[in-house]
Amino acid sequence: MFNLNEEFATANKNAVDTALRFAQLALTSTERLIKLQMDTARSALEENAKTVKAVAEIKDVKELTTMGSKLAEKLVERATNYSREVYEVASEAQSQMSKLTEETLAGYKEGVTSNIETALKSAPAGADAAVKAFKSSMAVAADAVETITKAAQQVTSITEANLKAAADTAAQNVKAAAKKAA
Fold it and tell me: How far apart are CA 109 and CA 14, in angstroms?
């Protein structure tokens, strides 16, 4: 027997559970980003203190030029590393949320299909065509979601590769410029 109230209560409970899981993922990612920012700020403060001390000990212009080149190189390297770490956190969060979305949609599809199967058992004669049409449209929707998910994963992979290549190129260019200046 199909109990609409029970199905509605179950659907609401599942929606709340899913929302709480999304919130937990968002909080965890935010926490990781804040920790990264604090660690980066602490590290920058320590590096700046060392730099100020080193600049105070400089005795000639050549030393100052050399130090400037080295500082530029370190700055680009730190910025590149920071960008990579931020991207890793964001990418991981996106991946986890995509996975949760896929699970939720799969559960929704199963639930809807199951409920319709149950409800259609008491359907009037001749409803077979409508049942087949509905099942077909559910399959098409599931295929569309899967295709979109795969495309998003490909875009993420391509973006990650491009960011890494750009960061590596920037670091190499700064190193080359520092060597020319020295």
Answer: 13
- Is-contact 166 83, C-beta < 8 A? no
Cα dihedral 156, 161, 165, 167, rounded to 10, equals: 40
Answer whether 156's CB lies under 8 Å from 95's CB: yes
d(CA 66, CA 70): 6
CA 168, 172, 173, 174 torsion: positive or negative?
positive
Name the residue with tokens 């919130």. 23
One pLDDT digit (tens) per residue for the chain, 182 residues: 556 677 778 878 888 999 999 999 999 999 999 999 999 999 999 999 999 999 899 888 888 888 888 888 888 889 888 988 998 898 899 889 888 888 887 787 787 777 777 776 776 777 777 777 877 887 788 788 788 878 877 887 887 788 778 777 877 776 776 677 65
Contact between residue 18 and residue 104 where contact means Cβ atoms under 8 Å apart: yes
Are the CB atoms for 94 and 153 separated by under 8 Å?
A: no
